[in-house]
Amino acid sequence: MTARALVSRAPLVAFQIALGVALVAKGLVSSGVGTALVTLALFAVWIGGTLLNSWLAARPGVLRFKAFAIPLVFGLTLLAMWEIAVRGYGVSTVILPPPSAIAVRFSHSLPILWEDFVQTVIKGALSGFVIGCVAALVTAVVVDRFDFLRRGLLPVGNFVAALPIIGIAPILVMWFGFDWQSKAAVVVVMVFFPMLVNTVEGLHDTSAMQRDLMRTYAAGYWTTLFKLRLPAAMPFIFNGLKIASTLALIGAIVAEFFGSPVRGMGFRISTSVGLLALDLVWAEIVVAAIAGSAFYGAIALLEKAVTFWHPSQRGHGH
Amino acid sequence: MMDGTPKPAAASTVISASALNLTFETNDGPVHALRDVNLEVGKGDFVSFIGPSGCGKTTFLRVMADLEQPTSGTVLVNGVTPEEARKARAYGYVFQAAGLYPWRTIGGNIRLPLEIMGYDKRVQAERVKEVLALVDLAGFEKKYPWQLSGGMQQRASIARALAFEADILLMDEPFGALDEIVRDHLNEQLLALWARTQKTICFVTHSIPEAVYLSTKIVVMSPRPGRITDVIESTLPRERPLDIRDTPEFLEIAHRVREGLRAGHAYD
Amino acid sequence: MMDGTPKPAAASTVISASALNLTFETNDGPVHALRDVNLEVGKGDFVSFIGPSGCGKTTFLRVMADLEQPTSGTVLVNGVTPEEARKARAYGYVFQAAGLYPWRTIGGNIRLPLEIMGYDKRVQAERVKEVLALVDLAGFEKKYPWQLSGGMQQRASIARALAFEADILLMDEPFGALDEIVRDHLNEQLLALWARTQKTICFVTHSIPEAVYLSTKIVVMSPRPGRITDVIESTLPRERPLDIRDTPEFLEIAHRVREGLRAGHAYD
Amino acid sequence: MRAVVPVLTVVAVIVAIWYAAAVWLNAPWARDMAARQDRELGAAELVVDTWSQDKPKLPAPHQVVTELWETTVEKSVTSKRSLVYHAWVTLSATLAGFGLGTALGFALAVGIVYIRVMDMSVMPWVIASQTIPILAIAPMIIVVLNAVGVSGLLPKAVISMYLSFFPVVVGMVKGLRSPSAMQLDQMRTWNATSAQEFVKLRLPSSMPYLFASLKIAMAASLVGAIVGELPTGAVAGLGARLLAGSYYGQTIQIWSALFMAAAVAAAMVGLIGVLQRVTLRRMGLDR
Amino acid sequence: ADEMTLQLKWVTQAQFAGYYVAADKGFYEEEDLDVTIKPGGPDIAPVQVLLGGGADVMVDWLPSALAARENGAPIVNIAQPFKSSGLMLTCLKEHGIETPADFPGHMLGTWFFGNELPLYSWMSKLGYATDGSEGGVTIQKINFNVDPLLQKQVECATTMTYNEYWQVIDAGLTPDDLVVFKYEDEGISTLEDGLYTTEENLEDPEMVDKLVRFVRASMKGWKYAEENPDEAADIVLENDATGAQTEVHQKRMMGEIAKLTAGSNGALDPADFERTVDVLLSSGADPVITANPGDAAWTLAITDEALK
Ligand SMILES: Nc1ncnc2c1ncn2[C@@H]1O[C@H](COP(=O)(O)OP(=O)(O)OP(=O)(O)O)[C@@H](O)[C@H]1O
Ligand SMILES: Nc1ncnc2c1ncn2[C@@H]1O[C@H](COP(=O)(O)OP(=O)(O)OP(=O)(O)O)[C@@H](O)[C@H]1O
Ligand SMILES: Cc1ncc(C[n+]2csc(CCO)c2C)c(N)n1
Ligand SMILES: [Mg+2]
Ligand SMILES: [Mg+2]
């Protein structure tokens, strides 16, 4: 372990130790030895995880491995703390099940989880995402073409985007029916404006010089659009896509709270809470988190492939 | 005109500006970027524009390229208006920064104007090869701009302007961002290229030695309002080795340019 | 050493580097930025570093400033390690771009290092006044950087480096972004300042005339690996009017620098 | 002000489309009711009916405006039937959540920028946290907080925080890293401490990013507060209004609550915009 | 006074009038209780609140309470103010459904969150598949309102006699346009709105004492509300923090609620309990509960004491 790593780690660990000591002491005074021991175990795991990670971070070695291992250790630490807390403090499983119970339920409910995944993610979120993003792209080009629209539509769009989706979802379910179409509609509404705003901004992100260059070639509007402005807008478009990817899943799930066929992740979550099958609820949340992160990751990868030329993608070279 | 040397006989006129004025309306009031500018550029000339910052060099070049509209006066490029000339793709324009598109390879960047102008795919490939060789970049076709040094990028951007066969080359401080040694080298190459292709070149620079070394004609400008204060016909031969810059003749012209500049310059 | 002039007698050494090596570990393998560099800089010297891009000029300056750690060899600044010198605030560093904070006025920018070093408020105000006058910017204290021209900004950044009384001034291409005429003017002012303050200055530049005009000693470097190829002691007098640049002696030194550069230069 | 005419035009177009859509969506019900009473509806009658139903599928704009007027201007602001009262309830949770979220986001960003381990471990999980549907865990958060004796404003604020810390982390990490290597080196040449570096360089440089993320965070906070109002028991606030409207099919009430929410969001974001302009101007960054 | 918290199953409305009346009329105070009433909502599982310590007593339906018990929530019925069920299935006549025999091939909408259990039991008793397959019905999860029925997104929808049914009527339909199936009439009714607490609470004599006083005062409230429906409705309206309820609707609701509480003095009738369990256990392949929870799920100790 290098001195540098020690220095960089010191403030965090010091903070953890201080907090730990305080809470253990408080536990001892107010709730007895058992609780204090659990608290102690919690902090032991937390500090242990942090130390392991600092050691990993300070080690010379392959960056790609570290970028994978360190968040993993961090996540495992969180899970271990969760397990210890739930079991140690005796939290009722109908309030918060431990990760181990969730894992068991997950492995036993794969068919249900898969059916729900298809209904919500593939049918609802994905289709809405595609429709919403394409629509936003096309609108952005139109809006960009007519400055009048840009000045008129964007402020109104900002206002509309501020409408909370919990309010919009029931309305759209009423309009588009119970099946995935209404979920897709909610997703379309949610992803449209982030996408539009980013794309419009991106289409403006060319330098005067680049545009002048096209003019010296006597290039027309569409040529300039396809050869210059769309490629230049890609980093912004991907920024929008990334935001949209997290929104899409949330939108599809939330919309199912307001009416659905008897399948889907949101459906399962909302009904299972009613039946206190909290382990299933969390299994669905795990699916959502994995699907969401994977979706995000896939777009990030695609971004890397498409905007490889952008300085932000070219790594931290000099 | 203050130069004593005779004008080269009857070079056919490629660019002519007469009584040109251009005023920008800004928030702080009008800015007189060009005032009563008159100039003739003959075929095959290499004209340098030099002058302090803000004297209107770029503006003048942009007017020729139909990127800016004069407030009054007329400009003719190849005998027609700048707009017609632009639409006829009569000139290539090289900007101060290389301005290559980072998402295209060097080859792709040079191909860009050819694609836009609807050249045949095969012809495109040939041209790219040709101009890359011309600027000494053969073999770099597949690289991306950011994989090249500044000097190489600038050469690629010149290649891009050469790719479609425009007779006129407008260059706005193309070497401004480069170090002196690379710059010397590119100057030599540019001269060679000019000699080979017989193009007419308008070249903006801040560097006195560069202007003197390259040009057949040096236009000295002065700001507030932007105007031409001196036009110096070079007495140097067309054939110019690098060390011509140590000759008294060169220094004499350089001195004259510096005096002209000094006269019109405000220090900040 | 290739210069025939005698070394100035026994100037006390301010900076000394011996057997200095610095290798960067990069993804594409190691880059030898400095190889076996030896140099002595005496008190009151004005040393210019010149060489093609990537030859290690900046790296060398950064080593002196303790912004980069050498792989081997030793550097002493004022007789101590660069780190101790940095902590003792022995030098002021001027970067290529002015790098003024846009959210601080010119005065605020100059005051910044003083605040950090814990100077007394009153002393701060005095110093700011002093150095602003020194760089000819009195009256601009309340302006924001973007209300000033590039040349003025660069002067402000020099003022900032002067504000705390460091004996050494390290300047990395401070005038690289300016046009030639403004640059001439700043060169004159820098010389005057140097004469007045008796500081030791290390100055990186790409411009041969600039190096020759300013320096008592010119260090020519060459890349891959970065090393010193020539050290030229200037024979010019300390008193230098601008037109000294047209004298044969000046041209002679310039020629020698150019030859030195040419030798070590690869064109890309 | 250049935006006034375009905005008005766009609004006018939207209103026109809205009226048309109201006719289209509400017509089946109107026809249905007429059929039950064995009547035929003429075109004019149909239009009038679709624009004045009690529980329309899509209320006409004037119905929403009337409802807004009645529930804001004509009711005392302390009345439970006043939308201003409910907006205030939501706003207070929003502001609390916004404060907490900004503080948490800020702290995380500072940690990520200054502590290498945090830099490498936290970000993927922060992203993952945002892929969890908040509506699903909001009730659990409420219950868990209830179990440890926290209720009232705070649970709502916590949910609001959950949504709002994210944009702040992302923006502030970017912002605190925005100083160039040169500026950081400069600090080093002056032998500045980390604290000085933070206060005098990183923080001021991050201001433009800060405000951009604050705007997003504010909008997210409002959504969070509304989500938080659903499982706290439909007690009060715009979320409760939305819910209650939904149980009784009061579409007009839903729409007016929605517009109120959007107006509150717009006002808050606008306020941050003003703050931004003032701050940046005082910093000399607003040219 | 002793503090207590009651968690309702739904938003403030006349369905819970007894508790609001008891609070408003000072019946709780008379018993030296300081009762906080927490309204519910679509995403609140009262059991969670109870077990999380956010409430001492809750109002819940027996099916969802038993399902929760099976999932490990140790909750016990301590009183049953509702004698009969208000649950029914309302269909539009135009879809041609007249008897349960007509259900196959139709689209039924129900609330979930535990409320679907009686419907599933019923369908399985009728022998209909619920997955939309041939000869079965399709079940949709609908939001807690009657819009889907009015908009014809479903052909039948779950309604309560005291609430949603009247919303349909208010929307402009007449009873003639509708066909209703009351669970009570179909012999598949399950117990609604009972009071529940945790086993742990019942082991604490002090708590038991509080619960006794609570149930006594609550029943007093219920009986007062039955007798003074209009006043009760007004009290409910005053306690509605959303300001969204209307007087007409609450008064009518109070009238209907009175019919459901009419037969109860607060004590659970074990026969009703057994009937509910039977209905739930008969839910075919995927039963709501898998085993008879037995007597542990209810107790008469509190009501016995309260009614003395
Ligand atoms: N689009 C514009 N709007 C307003 N003023 C402008 C515009 N473009 C240029 N100017 C002004 O016109 C004058 C001439 O500008 P121009 O760019 O032609 O100068 P230049 O000689 O190219 O200077 P430099 O050497 O700095 O490139 C300057 O004062 C400049 O500020
Ligand atoms: N942080 C770094 N990591 C890796 N390589 C570096 C780093 N800094 C500089 N180099 C490399 O070291 C060599 C010397 O760089 P340096 O910046 O000192 O050159 P220079 O002479 O200042 O060039 P220029 O005139 O372009 O400023 C170059 O090849 C450069 O790419
Ligand atoms: C937690 C929970 N939420 C809603 C209901 C359904 N429900 C029960 S009573 C009622 C009011 C009817 O007017 C409704 C909608 C439930 N059973 N449990
Ligand atoms: Mg210019
Ligand atoms: Mg350098």
Structure description:
- The complex is a heteropentamer, with 1 copy of chain A (318 residues), 2 copies of chain B (268 residues), 1 copy of chain D (287 residues) and 1 copy of chain E (308 residues).
- Chain A is an all-alpha fold and 318 residues long.
- Chain A is built from 11 helices and 1 strand; from the N terminus they run H-H-H-H-H-H-H-H-H-E-H-H.
- Chain A folds into 2 domains: 3-91; 106-315, MetI-like (MetI-like fold).
- In chain A, 83% of the residues lie in helices and 1% in strands.
- Residues 1-7 of chain A have low confidence and may be disordered.
- Chain B contains 8 helices and 9 strands.
- Chain B has helices at residues 57-64, 82-87, 106-116, 121-134, 150-163, 180-197, 208-214, 248-264; strands spanning 13-26, 29-42, 46-50, 72-77, 91-94, 168-172, 200-205, 217-222, 227-233.
- In chain B, the strands form 2 sheets. Chain B has a 6-stranded mixed sheet with strand order 5-6-7-3-8-9, sandwiched between helices. Chain B has a 3-stranded antiparallel sheet with strand order 2-1-4, with helices on one face.
- In chain B, helix 6 (180-197) links the parallel strand 6 and strand 7.
- Mean pLDDT of chain B is 86; it is low at 1-10.
- With 287 residues, chain D is mainly alpha-helical.
- Chain D has 2 domains: 4-58; 83-282, MetI-like fold (Orthogonal Bundle), CATH 1.10.3720.10.
- Chain D has 11 helices and no strands.
- In chain D, helix 4 (83-114) runs antiparallel to helix 5, helix 4 packs across helix 7 (153-176) and helix 4 (83-114) runs antiparallel to helix 9.
- In chain E, 40% of the residues lie in helices and 17% in strands.
- Chain E has helices spanning 17-24, 27-30, 46-51, 62-70, 117-126, 147-150, 164-170, 183-186, 199-202, 205-227, 229-239, 247-261, 270-281, 301-306; strands spanning 2-7, 33-38, 57-60, 75-79, 87-92, 107-110, 138-142, 156-160, 178-182, 194-198.
- In chain E, the strands form 2 sheets. In chain E, strands 2-1-3-10-4 form a 5-stranded mixed sheet, sandwiched between helices.
- In chain E, strand 6, helix 5 (117-126) and strand 7 form a beta-alpha-beta unit.
- Chain E is globular.
- At the A-D interface, helix 1, helix 2, helix 5, helix 6 and helix 9 of A face helix 1, helix 5, helix 6, helix 9 and helix 10 of D.
- Strand 1 (259-261) of chain A pairs antiparallel with strand 7 of chain E, so a sheet runs across the interface.
- The complex binds adenosine-5'-triphosphate (ATP) (2 copies), ligand VIB and magnesium ion (2 copies).
- One magnesium ion is lined by residues 57-58, 172 of chain C.
- Chain D: The chain crosses the membrane at residues 7-27, 85-115, 122-145, 209-232, 252-275.
- Chain D: It is found in: Cell membrane.
- Chain D: InterPro entries: MetI-like, MetI-like_sf.
- Chain D: It comes from Salipiger thiooxidans.
